[in-house]
Amino acid sequence: MSVQQCQRAQVPPTPARSPHTTTLFHVNLIHDLHRLQLTLSGKKHIIQYIIIIEMEIRARIQELISPINTRSGAMYRDIKISELTSEERTVIVQFLLGEVDMGVAVPTVGQFARNHRVHKDAIHYWIRRYNQGQHIYEYGGRSRTIDSQAMMDIKAAVNQAQREKNPPTIQETRAIIVREANNTRKRHHEAPKPTYSDNSTRKAMKACEIVPRMPQKITTARLNACSDLRMSYTLYIMLKACTESLSPAMMWNWDSTQFITNTSGTSEKVCVIKNAINEPVTAVADDTLPVAMKWFHMASANGEYAPFVLMVAIKELKPNQFFHYEVPSLSQSAHSALTGHLCFCKTRVGNDAFFDWFVTKIAIPTVASCRRINSIVVSILAIKLFFSIVYFAAQC
């Protein structure tokens, strides 16, 4: 409906009302203006648009409740309350309370119910909620705990925390949902609630696609190291300059894997958005990781492995102390003929004595032995290929 059509409808202006009679349009308008941070001219255009919409609703209700004069007397249209919106129900209540002028006499609730064939109890329920400053819901009853705006805000908060490697726990996620649920109630001009049932928060988590996951705890130092772009740049240079022309048997990777026990918060699940970030769920630990063991492993691109080396950190040891023991059948596989190495230092990163032993006794001998074996295999394959060519030539 245009402004000219609204003027021809001759809908009277809205009289002054108390704060609790503010319609849903005005509540949403105030929220959107603060959120969009529009200029003064932009706000005036939105206010004019909201007024036009409200005038449209009043004109529609005025046409619906106005009597039709016939030869047999005045007749009234039937009203299907299931087809009325929340705003239309609010206008009907305002009309019955005498707060707006529709150009017809204000009937009692009983007369209105008889004339338009609606349930009188439903009208009384609307009036009671309106007088209490509560939202009059549409057909279907109470709306969801959170609306679409709250869902976007909840997802944004959980995603931001996950990117910062500090995903919220289940209790913290419930606190976020309670906050946004109260923001939803404010947008519907309802009083906030201090708590919500577990069923309501579970439904809200499901609607936002929030799932609990067990995180991998990392230290702040590891987070900073993995976030440093220089690490990726160094790895790229190493791959291009050092290993691009090498065969798989000549390329080795030396890394370590930690086995964490008794870390603060490791047994507590955190909440993340399902399929939002394509990476393992990690969280920064509250304190230093009390790592029990650390596995130093080496593997080549050809599938060869170095002997199993396990480091155990004992804080009571001195920084330069290093103990090494060979343990039969200690390995990453179920092979009983292998021998593993059990090492002890003050920290899980080892010390100079450990790395001197590892490089001279594990890394260099393993690489040299695998290269020697691979060169023998290559030589045997070359000899077989030579004799195959000779045999094929003789047959021809």
Short key terms for the protein model shown above:
11 strands, single chain, elongated, 5-stranded mixed β-sheet, two-stranded antiparallel sheet, disordered N terminus, 14% strand, 396 residues, 47% helix, alpha+beta
Give structural notes.
It is a single chain. With 396 residues, the chain is an alpha+beta fold. Among the domains are: 3-131, no CATH class; 249-380, no CATH class. The protein has helices at residues 3-9, 24-36, 40-65, 86-96, 109-116, 120-131, 148-163, 170-187, 198-207, 220-227, 229-241, 352-395, and strands at 68-70, 73-75, 210-213, 216-218, 252-260, 270-273, 282-284, 291-300, 309-313, 323-328, 339-345. The strands form four sheets. It has a five-stranded mixed β-sheet, with helices on one face. The chain has a two-stranded antiparallel ribbon with strand order 1-2. Helix 2 (24-36) packs antiparallel against helix 3 (40-65) and helix 7 (148-163) runs antiparallel to helix 8 (170-187). The longest helix is centred in the C-terminal third of the chain and has 44 residues, at 352-395. The protein is elongated and about 115 Å long.
